[in-house]
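User: Hi! I have a protein structure encoded as tokens and I'd like to know what sequence might fold into it. I'm fairly new to this, so please keep things simple.
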């Protein structure tokens, strides 16, 4: 475990599984198969090896009863990643959470540990930054963000990065990120059938 629960930098792992999956024909992406493994199985194994507490945010709680996680639902009815992060923060028993989406099949334990290890008590967000920008769904958030998130949700401003101008953010540069994940596949997510095909192809070429 990388964090102790009574520490002021303790961290809970949060998996967001509340998307509508519109670009994936409505299919629940957490249950996409790669061989005999589902995405949610891989994520759960990574999280279980890092975190004492795991929260899964979903509006379909009955679908996830086989995993040893704390299942919660969104507090606000608006469906967005920001709403899911807010719910995870609200229910976490630690000062920080690490967040990922349920459609990231290649998240590496080393990447999670790198991000979580850089948490500091006075930092609100620890986030990877690559040439493509910040990875808001592979980042650590502090409970100090809750009130700002609530304000943005009520104002229907769901872009996560909008709040970064008002809080202390620590960005992890790409050179460091590649030490944990050479090809940065931890950030690959499946939005479409084309993404799924690419993911299967990558898996065949790199895992065999």
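Assistant: Happy to help. Inverse folding works backwards from shape to sequence: for each of the 208 positions I chose a residue that suits the local structure. Here it is:
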């Amino acid at each position: 475990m990388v964090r102790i629960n009574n520490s002021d930098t303790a961290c809970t792992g949060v998996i967001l599984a509340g998307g509508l999956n519109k670009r994936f024909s409505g299919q629940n992406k957490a249950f996409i198969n790669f061989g005999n493994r589902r995405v949610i199985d891989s994520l759960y194994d990574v999280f279980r090896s890092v975190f004492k507490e795991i929260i899964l945010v979903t509006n379909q709680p009955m679908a996830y009863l086989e995993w040893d996680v704390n299942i919660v639902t969104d507090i606000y009815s608006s469906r967005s990643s920001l709403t899911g992060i807010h719910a995870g923060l609200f229910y976490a028993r630690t000062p920080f959470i690490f967040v990922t989406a349920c459609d990231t099949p290649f998240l590496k334990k080393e990447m999670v540990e790198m991000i979580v290890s850089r948490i500091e008590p006075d930092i609100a967000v620890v986030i990877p930054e690559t040439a493509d920008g910040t990875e808001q769904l592979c980042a650590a958030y502090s409970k100090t963000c809750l009130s700002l998130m609530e304000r943005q949700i009520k104002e229907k401003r769901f872009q996560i990065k909008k709040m970064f101008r008002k809080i202390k953010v620590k960005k992890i540069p790409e050179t460091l990120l590649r030490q944990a994940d050479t090809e940065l596949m931890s950030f690959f997510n499946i939005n479409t059938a084309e993404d799924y095909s690419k993911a299967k192809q990558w898996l065949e070429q790199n895992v065999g």
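A useful reference point when you look it over: Residues 104 and 189 are 4 Å apart (CA to CA). Feel free to ask if any position seems puzzling.
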